[in-house]
Amino acid sequence: MSLKLGVPSKGRLMEKTFQWFADRGVTLRKSGSDREYAGAVDGIDGVELVLLSAGEIPRELETGRIHLGVTGSDLVRERLSAWDQQVDEVARMGFGGADLIIAVPQAWIDVETLDDLDAVAAAFRAHHGFRLRIATKYHRLVREFLRDNGVADYQLIDSQGATEGTIRNGTAEAVADITSTGETLRANGLKILSDGMIHSSQATLFRGRRRNWTDAQRATFKALVAKLTA
Ligand SMILES: Nc1ncnc2c1ncn2[C@@H]1O[C@H](COP(=O)(O)OP(=O)(O)OP(=O)(O)O)[C@@H](O)[C@H]1O
Ligand SMILES: O=P(O)(O)OC[C@H]1O[C@H](OP(=O)(O)OP(=O)(O)O)[C@H](O)[C@@H]1O
């Protein structure tokens, strides 16, 4: 059986992933039409390309349905519990960079740090009778980060998109989201807490730690890594 490599099927990560492999002598391409999620690999034998949503790749690595996968380091940490026991990093790829941060309205002039947020959260609850709301799609990472930093008086509101808009819409008081240029934060009148950096993400090639690989798959993996990291 071949070694299965999962890469993002569309969007910002797909093209740069294809380019990264091409620069190292391995050609990945979609076979068939643009909507068909099958692919082909040239430049090395025994590797099969599987096109998947970036968000699904962590789980596919965990279950062993793919052996290698490219996705954001944020998504692996968010989607897998004890991620470093499920996957190994093979290569940080140097693109797809984005920071997962906590931001609050610029108008909150007394709130610059997590300690300030904690104080505001306690006052907020006393005043409103419910906990300050933080909108995010990164539930695991945000909970762990706030727990480790002693912030407890909050609730998470699930937001799968347009997260920065939740404050204007009155459904959250703060957000935890990805930023790259910072434009979305600025446009929504938000500022990042000075110690509010949760994770600095980039596209990364991961290997699943399930070790039920055949000898042929191991040999292919060795040859591929030699090419990619030469
Ligand atoms: N400006 C940005 N905004 C959002 N994500 C970004 C940005 N820059 C890089 N990324 C990274 O891209 C990855 C998310 O990619 P994408 O949205 O295509 O995946 P997805 O969640 O699987 O989406 P979908 O479910 O729509 O396929 C994350 O690792 C994220 O950190
Ligand atoms: O710092 P910036 O360069 O402004 O980028 C950050 C924005 O990009 C992402 O949204 P995306 O475009 O993925 O849409 P989404 O709101 O559906 O997640 C992210 O959720 C932020 O909203």
UniProtKB/TrEMBL annotation:
Keyword annotations of the record: Amino-acid biosynthesis, Glycosyltransferase, Histidine biosynthesis, Transferase
Keyword set includes Transferase: yes
PROSITE patterns xrefs: ATP_P_PHORIBOSYLTR (PS01316)
Recorded metabolic or biological pathway in which this protein acts: Amino-acid biosynthesis; L-histidine biosynthesis; L-histidine from 5-phospho-alpha-D-ribose 1-diphosphate: step 1/9
Function field: Catalyzes the condensation of ATP and 5-phosphoribose 1-diphosphate to form N'-(5'-phosphoribosyl)-ATP (PR-ATP). Has a crucial role in the pathway because the rate of histidine biosynthesis seems to be controlled primarily by regulation of HisG enzymatic activity.
Cross-referenced NCBIfam families: hisG (TIGR00070)
PANTHER family in alphabetical order: ATP PHOSPHORIBOSYLTRANSFERASE, ATP PHOSPHORIBOSYLTRANSFERASE ATP-PRTASE
Protein name: ATP phosphoribosyltransferase
Organism: Thalassorhabdomicrobium marinisediminis
